[in-house]
Amino acid sequence: MKRPVEGFSKLTKEQKIDWLAKAYFYDDENAVYVLKQYWNEDTQLQKLHDEFIENTISNFYLPFAVAPNFLVNGEYYTIPMTIEESSVVAAASKAAKFWQKRGGFIAKVIDTEKIGQVHFMYSGDKSRLQTFFTYIKPQLIHAVKDITKNMEKRGGGIIDIELRDKTEALTNYYQLHATFNTLDAMGANFINSCLEQFAKTFKAAAQDYSEFTSSEKDIQIVMSILSNYVPNCIVHAEVSCPVEALNEDRLTPHEFAEKFVRAVAIANAEPHRAVTHNKGIMNGIDAVVLATGNDFRAVEAGIHAYAARDGQYRSLTQASIENGIFRFWIEIPLALGTVGGLTSLHPLVKIALEILDKPSAKELMQLVAVAGLAQNFAALRSLITSGIQKGHMKMHLFNILNQLGATEEQKKLIAHQFKDKTVIHSEVVAAYQQLTSN
Ligand code: HMG
């Protein structure tokens, strides 16, 4: 019987599992068995994972894979990817193999500015607020010296603080809009600590500011938080080659290039297609962001906002044919870190970063953008030639057979049957049923 629980967080892991199994499972022994099956025998490693989040009762595995042969800015990379969906890693690998023979990927970070905001309400005279802000700005920067001094020593810190009047969007609403350079750190804690201090200093100084009327002194701080929308933390990645080099089985190079450019144009023009097109890009981006211990929710939110920056949700990639040259590129905002957070805690994240030769945040931005571009190339290449199902379902075959409970021998036999055929779920089920009924 499902019921609420008091003080759950204070229970031990065993007690939490016991409560859950009894409250939610008819076969509680099996539930306990499955949850514990995923515990790591290494108790230190398990404890580390337990402490990443709260109320941990087990581990949730995702496959950790690598896609080799990425030639980026003249260097070879093997890209680690963490994802549950079949065909993504194969597609990335196939795209990498294709482009390594055509000059590889060129990637460049355009800017790395991060953003944080103190949101506040003020109902007084606007020009007096502006004068107060100009007066207080040096004090705001001074008030966070203890937080910023190490970042400044490394070459980063606060770029600027602006007062922004948002009263057209919401009555009495203003912001302190601050920009930061957080170097190799994603910077969320650094930015939030600075913002919270700005808010305290700003409010306290307003109360003592003699030019304000008594009601103007009462500035209401609503919240202080970084923004995951970072349109000035941008990376560009691209591939290009003569159209003649786009040899494909089913289409001439010119047909392929033109159809490809049209497919991208459709994603630019039509939001339903743009969402799926960008989902395919995120297959690559999320997988590398996750493998390298970065915050994929922040990346997703920021990238999708960027895709809609002109008011319509559009493709994150662009393609063109000019003077016989096919060009395909991506430009996305990415706030990533290669120090701090999970990057120094999770053993597999450390391995992922070592595979990438311990990249700086800028280098990681380039590789993540390249993974997104490669993924989009592979998906579009399939979509405009064979269709997506052929390759995707070829990779998915073993998942279907595992769902059916096929033995290794049965899997081998059925895989052989589908070697040169498009995999269709119902046909795999029929093949399995025929095999097991014999
Ligand atoms: P294929 O031509 O059958 O592969 O492609 P192949 O067996 O000829 O092998 C060629 C290369 O592909 C290999 O080279 C590998 O690099 C890679 P090799 O290693 O032999 O030197 N490869 C593999 N890598 C690892 N494990 C494997 C494997 N097989 C091939 N088992 C493939 C098959 C799936 C790669 C191709 O059909 C493809 O790229 N399809 C696109 C799949 C895709 O985009 N999947 C994402 C999921 S679908 C989706 O969510 C997004 C979508 O909706 C987005 C959109 O609409 O835009 C489509």
From TrEMBL:
Pfam families the UniProt entry points to: HMG-CoA_red
EC number of this enzyme: 1.1.1.88
UniProt-listed InterPro entries: HMG_CoA_Rdtase, HMG_CoA_Rdtase_bac-typ, HMG_CoA_Rdtase_cat_sf, HMG_CoA_Rdtase_NAD(P)-bd_sf, HMG_CoA_Rdtase_sub-bd_dom_sf
Catalyses which reaction(s): (R)-mevalonate + 2 NAD(+) + CoA = (3S)-3-hydroxy-3-methylglutaryl-CoA + 2 NADH + 2 H(+)
Coiled coil spans: none
SUPFAM superfamilies found in the cross-reference section: NAD-binding domain of HMG-CoA reductase, Substrate-binding domain of HMG-CoA reductase
Pathway: Metabolic intermediate metabolism; (R)-mevalonate degradation; (S)-3-hydroxy-3-methylglutaryl-CoA from (R)-mevalonate: step 1/1
One of the record's GO molecular function terms: hydroxymethylglutaryl-CoA reductase (NADH) activity
Keyword Oxidoreductase: yes
Gene3D superfamilies, sorted: 1.10.8.660, 3-hydroxy-3-methylglutaryl-coenzyme A Reductase, Chain A, domain 2 (3.90.770.10)
Keywords from the UniProt entry: NAD, Oxidoreductase
Biological process terms in GO annotation: coenzyme A metabolic process
UniProt similarity note: Belongs to the HMG-CoA reductase family.
Name of protein: 3-hydroxy-3-methylglutaryl coenzyme A reductase
